Every structure is written in C-alpha cells, then in structure tokens.
Amino acid sequence: MIAIRLHLDYEELSRSLKAAVSSYITNEKLLQLILSFSETKKTFPFGQLTHLHYTAFGGEGKQIIHLSAAVELLALSFDILDDLEDLDNFEEPWMKINPSLSLNAATAMYTISLQMLHELSSDHKWKIISTFQRFALQAMEGQHTDLQNDIANEEECITMIEKKSGSLIALASVTGALLATGEEFTCVEQYSYQVGLAAQIENDYRDLFHEHKNDLAAQKKSLALLFLNRGFNEHAKELTEFIAGSQTFTQHYGSIEAFKSKLLQSGVVHYLNVMKQIAIQKASTLIAEAPLPQHQIELLKSHLIINSSENKRRD
User: Fold this and answer.
1) Which of 45, 60, 83, 197 could form a disulfide bond with 311, CB atoms 3.0-4.6 angstroms apart?
2) Does the keyword field hold DNA-binding (predicted)?
3) What DSSP state is assigned to residue 302?
4) Residue range 240-280, pLDDT digits in tens
5) Is the pLDDT of residue 7 over 70?
6) What's the mean pLDDT when you consider all of the chain?
7) Which three-class secondary structure state does DSSP give residue 314?
C-alpha cells in the first residue's frame, strides 16, 4: 500500500496562523478579537484542500503549512464578511458585537492572509500571489451578484455559485498544486467550481429549514426559488405564495415536517438533488483528467466528492 500523508497537522497550522496574526497586529484589542474569531475554527477544510493538492502533486516541505494557514485566514475573513453582508448566522461571535469592529477585523485578516504569501520561500511565490488574488476577486464578484439578488434564471444562478463558492475551493486547490509544481492545471480549477456548486446546493437545501437563515423567506434568488417560481404544479405555486408572505414556515405549515412534505411534493427537492448529482459527476470526470497516478486521483475523489458537502461553507 502506498503511504499518503493526507491529514494536515491542525495544531501546526493553527500555530502558524496565530503567529502570523500576532506578528502583524500591534493593537492588543484587535489582536485578541481576531484570535478569538480564529479559535472558532475546529477544522480547517480549505487548508486541508491546499495540503491535499500539494501532496497529490508531489510537494514535500514545510512551506505548505504557511500557505494553508494563509488560505484558512482568507476563508475565515470571507465567512465573516458574508455573514455581515447577509445578516445571518447570528450565533457566530462576530455577529454578537458591533458590526464595525467585526468588519474591520475581517478586513485585517484578509490583508494578513495576502501578506503571509510574501513570506513564502518558493520560486513560485509570485504565481501563487497572483492566483490567490484572482480567485479572491472572483469570489467577491460572485458575492456581489448574490447580494444584488436580481438573478433572472438558473443559468445565471449557477454561474454566481461557481464564482462565489467555487472560487474559494479553486483558490485552495490551485495554490496547493502551484506550490508543488509551479503549474496551474485547468482541470483543478474546473473541478473546484463543480465541487463548490454541489456543496452550495447542499447548503442551500439545509438552510431552507433554518428559521434564522431562511433564503426562501428572504426571497433570495436561489436555485430553489427560481425553480418554484416556474410553477410546475400546484404545490410549487402554493409555496411561491407562501414565500411572498411574511409568515415563517412553522407559522404557515405548523411544523417542519409539513413544510418538508410540501417541498417534496413541489418537485424542488428532486430538482436540487439532480442538480447536485450533475455537478458531482462533472467534478468526478474532471478529477480523472488530472495528470496524476490513479491512486492520487482516487484520493482526490474521496476527499472532494465524498466529503465536499461537509467542507464548504460559502453560503
């Protein structure tokens, strides 16, 4: 059996992240705030993706810990900004304090993540920095489209999700491969978008049943709402009328079970599952095209396909 170092040393990554923040922030209150936000991270899914691709493409060395920490810090800053912009996930610590303080801390974290890249002792440093910034900007563009909430159809919605969610997965994956080889592989970028799409569809489905994060109640132009608006049957039309009202799903339907049943009858549950499976199949096909040994391809599939819905949050 081929030995593969799959798992990132989370304690080492956490130390690297905290050391970087502490070295750049001199304001003690801001430092403690950022560190408190970082301590909410129990796992490091984006850093794990960076590490996974680094090792899959033959990388060896400790620089990957520093790069993975930078990726995680950026992802956390985007989570905070996303929650502040969407006004949800109120249980998070950055949503329980003055939003101006959280916004400033997130901006500082984003800036530090970029600065950390300049500390890499790699011949591929400038390629990594350029790629990092390119995908970060794409994610911001996707978020802006989502916030505008004027998406007209499913095709536009899929493009938005690929940019908003897929770009961060691509950032983590492509930079890991870049650190190992100095090359950007198109297939890595492309399957990252599909993995992001599949994970976001799963997140959006779960969020339908969260009364403090209900995209339907907010009439957010998600794939679910766009499908229901097409009114394929009476159940879909009834749900569209409910969404236009002001009641929560428990107030209107009496229970979460009744609401789930109505969604099932409308066809939206089946639709979302089909769309997710299509994205997963596309991702699987693209992963198979990676210029890697078969055992590494299977490793990527195992982590990206089987675990994708657990790893990605950009919702």
Assistant:
1) 45
2) no
3) I
4) 998 888 888 888 899 989 999 999 999 999 999 999 999 99
5) no
6) 91
7) coil
For the chain, strand residue ranges (E) read none
Show me where the domains of the chain are located.
10-232+267-308
Residue 59 CA to residue 122 CA, distance in Å, equals 12
Q: Topology of 10-232+267-308 in CATH?
A: Farnesyl Diphosphate Synthase (1.10.600)
Q: Give the model confidence (pLDDT) of 115-174 as tens digits.
A: 999 999 999 999 999 999 999 999 999 999 999 999 999 999 999 999 999 999 999 999
**Residue 16 CA to its chain's centroid (Å):** 22
Total residue length of the chain:
315
Instruction: Output the six-digit token pair for 216.
Output: 């339907």
Rg (CA), the chain: 20
* pLDDT-based confidence at residue 205 (cuts at 50, 70, 90): confident
pLDDT tens digits for 64-73? Answer: 999 999 999 9
Token digits of residue 178: 């870049």
**CA–CA separation, 286 and 275 (whole Å):** 17
Cα end-to-end span (Å), the chain: 38
Joined together, the tokens standing for residue 172 give 């983590």
Let me know: does 38 contact 73? Beta carbons within 8 Å. Answer: yes
Question: How far, in whole angstroms, is CA 41 from its chain's centroid?
Answer: 14
Nearest CA-CA partner of 183 in 57, 5, 68: 57
User: Tokens representing 305?
Assistant: 């396909």
State which amino acid sits at residue 297.
I
Per the CB < 8 A criterion, the answer to whether 96 and 64 are in contact is no
* Region class of 219: left (phi > 0), else alpha (psi between -120 and 50), else beta: left
- The two three-digit tokens of residue 223, written as one number: 């794939």
Please state, as a whole number, how many other Cβ atoms lie within 10 Å of the Cβ of residue 284. Answer: 17
- Per-residue tokens: 217: 């109640």
